[in-house]
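Ticket 4471: requesting a sanity check on a complex prediction with alpha-D-galactopyranose. Repro inputs:
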Amino acid sequence: MTEREESSGGRRRWSAPGRVNLIGEHTDYNDGFVLPLAIPLVVTCVGARHSDDLVRVSSRQRPGESVRLPAGSLATERDLLPGWARYPLGVVAEFGRRGHGIEGSELEFDGAVPAGAGLSSSAALCCAAAVAIRDLCAPAVGDRELIDIARAAENDYVGAPTGILDHAASILCTEGHALFLDVRAFTGAATGGFEQIPFDLAAAGLRLLVIDTGQTHDHAEGGYGTRRAECAAAAAALGVGSLRDIDELAALSGLTDPVLYRRARHVVSENDRVRAVAALLLSGADPREIGPLLDAGHDSLRDDFEVSTDVLDVAVGAAREAGAHGSRMVGGGFGGSIIALVDTAAAGRVEGSVRERLARSGFESRTFEAVPSPGAGPVD
Ligand code: GLA
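Returned structure tokens:
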């Protein structure tokens, strides 16, 4: 036992952040590009190992919904578990399924990432569990496998058909950077596939606001799965493995189904926007120049991918009218948050204007600042 573990009764602390995606929405499960950053809202996990084989999980936000189970029975007990506990226990089960011996452990969670806001609270919960379990029981597991474990827990155990974006962001992001992730390259090789892009808005007199509209979403239901299926159908109709294989919009002319055409046009154009934003930031250009690309991303999600809502559109419209350089919905859609790139001096005006417009529709918004923050890991 280390000195630190001894002084805390063997208990240690980890944290994993939520994320906002600067650009690159619904591209991850099409093998494309994304550009997220970690936000300073985290899920923390205090954990310790025990000499028995019981796994205990509890959440400060879910008093009375603690669970204690033998590690070996996690797969069969899943349907009886409280909803929140399926995320961390899915992670434990996935470690076990991959042959990593999980001993008795105790994990206490405290989450500050708002749920249903499109900021990846569930991925933050899975990733907090994943880094804790790795350090407690399976230190040889590398970051790539860890990301895959967290994703598999959410996909296979919880039943939410997410891509890799949220878990990769929570594990790989670093302070002061956005993460350029080439999903195909990352998942297809043992190294590479991502790049840390310096993202210092304060130096340019800018802020990135995240405004949670108060309209919540739920990925396990709704249109997310339908959109995935439509993208797969578009790829199949075009005779390619995934929409990542299409570089030119002209190549979509073979799609006769108008819905599939629009879905594919969003993915192909969004991949271009991710590369363009990354190139602008790397070139040292004024970050205000990415604004029109953020706007175009929203318009494409609204018109072609049809995952925006009236509430998100109202919020984005209000932010633009109040002087945002660019604004768009973030995450899977059907509710959740928007981002707005604003001059520091205009932040209060934009925030107030969006809040007032949403209040008129009966929604209470909350605003955070997306300061690019560290990824998941131990907390000293
Ligand atoms: C959700 C999913 C991600 C990604 C986004 C859309 O957040 O969890 O994998 O597909 O939607 O970009």
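Notes from triage: The pocket of alpha-D-galactopyranose is lined by residues 21, 25-26, 28-29, 162-163, 165-166, 331-332 (CB under 6 Å). Leaving this open until the requester confirms.
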